[in-house]
Amino acid sequence: IQLTQSPSSLSASVGDRVTLTCRASTGISSHLAWYQQKPGKAPKLLIYGASILQSGVPSSFSGSGFGTEFTLTISSLQPEDFATYYCQQLNSYPFTFGPGTKVDIK
Amino acid sequence: QVHLVESGGGVVQPGGSLRLFCEASGFSFRNYALHWVRQAPGKGLEWVGFIRYDGRIEYNTDSVRGRFTISRDNSKNTLYLEMNTLTELDTAVYYCARGGSNTWWAGDYWGQGTLVTVSS
User: Fold this and answer.
1) Is A38 strand, coil or helix?
2) Scanning A29, A79, A92, B89, which has its CA 20 to 30 A from the CA of B63?
3) Which of A45, A98, A99 sits opposite B106 (nearest CB)?
4) CB nearest B47 (choices: A44, A54, A95)
5) Which residues in B lie closer than 8 A to residue A31 (C-beta atoms)?
């Protein structure tokens, strides 16, 4: 299953609402996770099951979608949110990742 | 406190072999699945494979093509990745991550990674 993410990068300001998209080449039900990765660091799980917020993740993050189209929304971008975001499908093997969306400061 | 620590990385010549380790602590190791994920320099994440709590193993056959073997020793709380016939394309930081049915197998805790460099 191939995942595409859009945009590949975006520039935004603190306080902006940001929406990232992940599309699957075939339906994956709700078996999608979102991760945040900062340079030199391991990925951090944000969302699993397409919309379930991982414990300890700020409520400014939310996920939605089903089947082939999914979104990650950051309701109000904070300085610590500038990072690269990856989606991963866990519906069928191999558990592929998307290519990532880099969010940087405008 | 959940902790995953990878080790075993280093420089290896093309065609060579390497064994990576992931030592876990702070949770009931035998009850969780574990992933290996790699990231080539400046590139995105690539799922390598996965061993479930029941011992079932799945690989990203497109990239590892029977060259890599995942195993675990529940008595030592350790995950392994045996890598053979390495090429420059295997150069990457290798991460282990815990996956549970409670997070629909998503990796909720990750190690810091270990760098594998394949070069002559």
Assistant:
1) coil
2) A29
3) A45
4) A95
5) 104
* pLDDT, mean over chain A: 97
**pLDDT, tens digit, for every residue of A1-18?**
999 999 999 999 999 999
| Whether B48 contacts B86, CB under 8 Å | no
Nearest residue, CB atoms, A94 vs list B60, B103, B113: B60
> Do the Cβ atoms of A45 and B108 come within 8 Å?
yes
* pLDDT (tens digit per residue) in A18-30: 999 999 999 999 9
Report residue A96: phi and psi, to 5°.
-75, 150
3-state helix, strand and coil shares in percent for chain B, rounded to the nearest 5: 10, 50, 40
As to burial, measured by CB atoms within 10 angstroms (0-12 exposed, 13-18 middle, 19+ buried), residue B117 is middle
Count, residues in chain B:
120
Question: Residue A96 and residue B47: Cβ atoms within 8 Å?
Answer: yes
CB-defined contacts A:B, below 8 A? 69
For B74, other C-beta atoms within 10 Å of its C-beta total 14
Residue B11 tokens, joined: 């420089």
